[in-house]
Amino acid sequence: MTHRNGQTGIGNELSIQHLSKRYASAQAEGGQLQVLQNINLHASAGSFVSIVGASGCGKSTLLRLILGLDDEYEGRIELDGKPIQGTGLERGIVFQDHRLFPWLTVEQNILVGLRNAPLSSAEKKERVAEHVALVGLAGFEQSWPHQISGGMAQRVAIARGLVNRPRVLLLDEPFGALDALTRARLQNELQRIWQTERITMLLVTHDVDEAVYLGDQVVVMEPHPGRIRRIVDVDLPRPRHRSDPRFIALRDDVLGDFLEPQALARAA
Fold this sequence. Notes:
By secondary structure, the chain is α/β, with parallel strands linked by helices. Helix content is 34%, strand content 24%. Strand 7, helix 5 (180-197) and strand 8 (200-205) form a beta-alpha-beta unit.
């Protein structure tokens, strides 16, 4: 199947093998803090993978390594069988803070994502218009960041992350700063965009409900050092409904991984 971005969903396969990461730390034993330990993860082309875990389990560090912001680690990170080396246009990212430039309009903020793209001005203009429509912001192209809501600003950030048509989009708590209603709406929007674009997406979140609602798989991580506790397949049809007993059972199953240590601590 060919999707609107001209990609087939084939060729966006991400593979992480025996990945470990340490940082120098005077406080840690041996002078090094183990942040990630033996991470093995496979994201098939066009899949949506949710990574959930408590603070300190290395979720954001994992995204930094995939993005190519840090190349000092053990193991391998490959896209389509080729090692990732540095940053590249084939990997986009959306942060919790939308990070829009206040002196640029919505349209101009999205255009920033094409700064290094080998496109003509006309092609860039067309690409920006396409992605304004994709995230539902038609009519707001000339608005300034202070004139739009937080949810709309995050839509701009998503459009900017997608405008290069990356093969993998990384999402680092993209809805964490939003109110519950706006968050739920944008989760639906992100699901719609993913189904349209069909690129590989990796979402990092603290929200188990969000992880199960959006993911084909939920990767449950635990801290000190950050490692994968288990990977849960979410075999539910889309669109998903939070009132579906199967959804509730899956969510509660994953949530149990985080409640269990607290229960054991109380028992002790």
